[in-house]
Amino acid sequence: MLKELDPLLHSQLRLGVMSILMSVESAEFTFLKEKTNSTAGNLSVQLDKLSEAGYITIEKSFNGKKPLTTCRINRKGMKAFEDYVNALKDYIKK
């Protein structure tokens, strides 16, 4: 029996964000926007969804007078991502 793929991670943009966050300690909003080729509005909505699911933490601060948004994946997010990748591997093997 194949495991169900996490619908939250099945979105291309959210999966891209999670993939990036798995490989770095943290990432600024502008870095994620550039790496995923997304619009600020769409990225913001998708980050909120990941945050609401408890997969990432979002820290808002200022760099001088400029707002700074930093994202980090947390344990729950790492487990969800690993489970997703393992489920994909199962699909490939079948």
TrEMBL record:
InterPro entries per UniProt: WH-like_DNA-bd_sf, WH_DNA-bd_dom, WH_DNA-bd_sf
PANTHER family referenced in this protein's UniProt entry, alphabetically: BSL7504 PROTEIN
Lineage top rank: taxon: Bacteria
Annotated protein name in UniProt: Transcriptional regulator
Domain Winged helix DNA-binding: 13-92
Pfam annotation, one family: HTH_34
